[in-house]
Design goal:
Layout: H1 2-20, E1 24-25, E2 29-30, E3 39-40, E4 45-46, H2 52-60, H3 78-99, E5 113-116, E6 119-122, H4 123-126, E7 128-133, E8 136-140, H5 148-157, E9 165-167, E10 170-174, H6 180-213, H7 221-254
Protein name: Ribosome-recycling factor, mitochondrial
Keywords: Mitochondrion, Protein biosynthesis, Transit peptide
Family: Belongs to the RRF family.
């Protein structure tokens, strides 16, 4: 009786450990008909559970495609597609530099385009721009006095929050102090420019995919699918770069 009293708790603990363990299970089964009147113990079956983190990682990843562009030149020029997509990114960088600068310099007005009766011209081609102080820029319009009114309009319509004044053929441009409100306005403009860039990127991708689909009659579906996947991959990479540019510009503007 004393021995049973001591062994019973140990036996219960052993059974509980086997029931609670999800990884290993051992069972006693009957042997197949080829070996009657015998029993066997199969090897322990191990069951591995994927963690939520590994599942999410596997879900977010897809196989990368790297097609030799020379092999699909008769379908589409992947180099040209990549070039057009890269041009969208470069145009965004240029817009950010020209339109969203909070640093005061004579070159800060160079990007401003003035619309005249003879066409559109950069302000620095119509007038001589000089900085008298960090808060004051002058534009000498003596070479094209007829464009003064158009230049004033272009300065007021810029994203730099300018209020120019005219003194003869001289345009005086006081540079306002950059406020928090103005910084936030520029951030909103940066988002608008990045969204326009993504729209342009989608058009490039859509045009490329349309061109690829025209080759279905002479190429296998697998080949067409791989080329489309390569185009999508190129587009995704540029979209990531656009987001990086926006994040960097937002950080710069907000200080």
């Amino acid at each position: 009786m004393a021995l049973n009293h001591l062994l019973r708790p140990l036996l219960c603990q052993s059974l509980l450990r086997q029931v609670r363990s999800p990884l290993v299970a051992t069972s006693r089964v009957s042997a197949p008909p080829l070996w009657p009147n015998t029993t066997c113990y199969p090897s322990a079956c191990i069951r591995l559970y994927a963690t939520k983190k590994s599942k999410a990682k596997a879900k977010g990843q897809s196989a990368k495609v790297n097609i030799n562009s020379a092999l699909v030149e008769d379908i589409i020029s992947l180099d040209e597609v990549k070039g057009e997509m890269t041009a969208v990114l470069n145009a965004l960088k240029d817009d950010f530099t020209r339109n969203l600068s909070i640093r005061t310099s004579p070159g800060a007005l160079d990007h401003i385009v003035v619309t005249t009766q003879d066409g559109k011209f950069p302000l620095n081609q119509l007038g001589q721009i000089s900085m008298k102080s960090p808060q004051f820029i002058m534009v000498n319009m003596s070479s094209f006095p007829e464009a003064i009114k158009a230049a004033i309009h272009a300065l007021k319509e810029s994203s730099m929050n300018l209020n120019p004044e005219v003194d003869g053929t001289i345009i005086k441009v006081p540079v306002p102090k950059v406020t928090r409100e103005h910084r936030e306005t520029l951030v909103k403009l940066a988002k608008q420019l990045s969204n326009k860039a993504k729209d342009s990127l989608r058009r490039v991708r859509s045009n490329a995919v349309t061109q690829v689909k025209k080759a279905k009659e002479v190429h296998s579906e697998d080949t067409i699918r791989l080329v489309e996947k390569q185009i999508q991959q190129l587009s995704d990479n540029i979209a990531v770069d656009i987001d990086k540019q926006l994040a960097a510009k937002t950080k710069e503007l907000l200080g």
